[in-house]
Amino acid sequence: MAREERNHVSSGEDDREEQEDEKMEQFFALLRNFREACNKRKHELRQRDHEEEINKKMKKNKTSKLGPGEEQSSWVPRFEWEDFTAQFEFRRPLIVCPAPYNKKEDKKKLEDDDGLDLNLTLSPASV
């Protein structure tokens, strides 16, 4: 009888372990299904966003290019020569900015103007 009780107890433990294993497998199967559903939904949303972007670009291209049967603007800009030669009256006097001053360029200009060396220093070549 002791053997039967031991077998009965061990088979009861085996049943519990098997039930726990089945529960864990079901739990992990639920997790996998949930992840797959999330990934599928993300993919669907990305695909929908991509399609919307393509549709927006196509609509933008259609509106920017006038095709046959679409209305064109009735106003066409036209310029006359007088538009560019008319005198303008300013409310305030114009601000005239002075030219930038560069010492090196001024020295070169002075030397290049006459071609004369106006340095009054004595050099060995001039003696």
Could you describe the 3D structure shown?
InterPro entries: NPR1/NH1-interacting (IPR031425). Keywords: Nucleus. It is found in: Nucleus. Its main location: nucleus. The protein has 127 residues and is an all-alpha fold. Helices cover 62% and strands 0% of the residues. The protein has 3 helices and no strands. The longest helix is centred in the first third of the chain and has 63 residues, at 2-64. The chain is elongated, with a radius of gyration of 46 Å.
Spatial separation of the terminal alpha carbons: 139 Å
Query: Residue ranges: pLDDT <50 for 5 or more in a row?
Result: none
Task: Tell me, rounded to a whole number, the average pLDDT.
Answer: 76
Largest sheet descriptor: none
Level of helix content? 55-70%
Backbone shape: elongated
Radius of gyration: 46 Å
The amount of beta strand, in percent, is under 5%
Number of strands: 0
- Sketch the topology as an H/E string, one letter per element: HHH
Structural class, please? mainly alpha
Query: Helical stretch count?
Result: 3
Protein name: Protein NIM1-INTERACTING 1-like
Pfam family, one: NPR1_interact
Region (Disordered): 1-22, 42-72
Keywords: Nucleus
Quickly describe the structure:
The chain is mainly alpha-helical and 127 residues long.
Descriptive keywords:
single chain; NPR1/NH1-interacting; elongated; mainly alpha; nucleus; 62% helix; 3 helices
List the helices and strands and how they pair.
Blueprint: H1 2-64, H2 82-85, H3 103-114
